[in-house]
Amino acid sequence: MLDLKELKAFVNGFSVLHIEDNDALRENSLKLLSKFFDTVYTAPNGKEGLETFIKYHPQIVITDIKMPLMSGFELAQNIKKIAPETKIIIMSAFDDKEYLYQAIEVGAYRFLKKPVNLSDFTQILHDAVAIIKQEENLQLFDRAIKSIFNYQSSMVVMLQGSIPFLANQMFLTFFDVATIEEFIERYNNLGSQFLEHKGFLYNHDDKSWFEEVYANTQKLYHVKLQDKEGVMKHFLLKYQGVPQKANQSILSFDDITELNLLKLFDEQQSKNDENLQDRNALFKLLGVLQRNDAKVHLHNYYKGLSIANDAIITDIISDKIVVLKTNYLQQKAVQFEQKSLMVSDALPHDIACDTVIGISFDRQTIEFKNLHFLATSPVRRKTIRVVPEDVHTLSLFVEGKKFQGETKIEDLSLDAVKVELNALPAGLNEETEVILDIVLTMQKQHTIINTKAIMFRKYENKHSFSIIFLFKLQQQQKNSLLSYITNRQMSIIREFKGLQNG
Fold it and tell me: Are 47 and 70 within 8 A, CB to CB?
């Protein structure tokens, strides 16, 4: 038997109408039904029962058959005309097959013989509510689909496998066809209309567009299409399966041509700082990701250790501030670094989030401002970088002369070292060969690296300079440095775990 408390919680918000001409039975049923339904209506005959139903529209109706003024079958017929979704339970002291057939004809949910077993009765009520909830969810889904088709400005097409079978007017107008059948006859394959562009979705020799999206549900793809006027358009495409509909799916195309992002996918134009600083386009693109509930990834570095987790955009404020929801681990990493990198396949470049406004551990949110695209990103690094322990020394020799200023290693890898200098040594330029004498200390063990290096890049800070030197290491030196980096990375992991727990 169902627990009455559980049943009461399950049927919360539902109402029931019981029609019974026997006053004592009606009173008893009122007491029983009121134990788990907050709203119970009763009526002594079919006529008053129908009037009560029209006034209050309860989701469940329980009725006797033989009653004054209107029988239970007549009542059921009238209710089904008004609200076909109503669940009607017909009760009778007789189990005549003719009554059962009539109950089926009028669309009754169940036919019960009196007296009714309490356990069976509560189970039937539970099942009726469960079906109503399921039907309501399906109706919500159907309304959502119709809303997408009829009210959104996006192009939407439904697929059976990879074949379109239904499309909204925006889609048909774009391809200058009257029906989806005409589209299939004219173009045959939808993917044939996806134009080739680096970083975009289109048919490849090794994989079709549909194989790609089918394997990556909910992922956003960039697509380039040509409209009926021959104008190139840029869309974000989203693929999602239809619940309870095997092999059916929905494609939605969000037109982002006005953001003028195609140039950011072009390697030459993307080097243009003016393109990368287009903050208006950046925030509009983030708005599209937010509307599509698309996941992004946040990347941070704790002393060189990469911390990366999923995040979703929950709010965009005045095209200046973005609010993201992520997990506690990423929040702690952002709290330490006071900035982050946002990465997504839907972005033409990684986005630097330079300023943290606030972190809410209760809401699992982070607010950032000062966002901009990056031409290059540390996320693309092929080698591991670590920040050494404070106990280290570095001596720099330029043209055989030792630099007498202050030096500090910011981070290092097997390929390079980034060094902070309080001044620039004379004769130090790009491609200048230097000698580096490095002593790294960990757990009282010393790793000594004496090697030639090439100056690769220079960054000017407020009161110092950061210089990247590319190593020219011998194999033995590489082995020693690799051992140090591995041990240092493990030490940083333990340190970050302690920070997380604290």
Answer: yes
DSSP state of 289: H
Its pTM stands at: 0.58
Cα distance between residue 145 and residue 249, in whole Å: 11
CATH topology of 4-136 equal to that of 153-255? no
CB 320 within 8 A of CB 382: no
pLDDT tens-digit readout, 393-442: 999 999 999 999 999 999 999 999 999 999 999 889 999 999 999 999 98
H helices present in 92-192, as ranges = 97-105, 118-151, 169-174, 180-187
Tokens (6 digits) for 481: 């440095």
**Helix intervals (H) in 154-246:** 169-174, 180-187, 209-214
Tell me whether the omega of the peptide bond preceding residue 388 falls within 30 degrees of 0, making it cis. no
Distance CA 198, CA 265 (A): 7
Task: Return all residues near 4 (Cβ < 8 A) that are at least 6 apart.
Answer: 35, 36, 122
CATH 3.40.50.2300 applies to domain 4-136? yes
Quote the CATH superfamily of domain 273-380: Trypsin-like serine proteases (2.40.10.10)
Q: Which fold has domain 392-497?
A: Thrombin, subunit H (2.40.10)
Provide the CATH number for the domain formed by 153-255 in this structure.
3.30.450.20
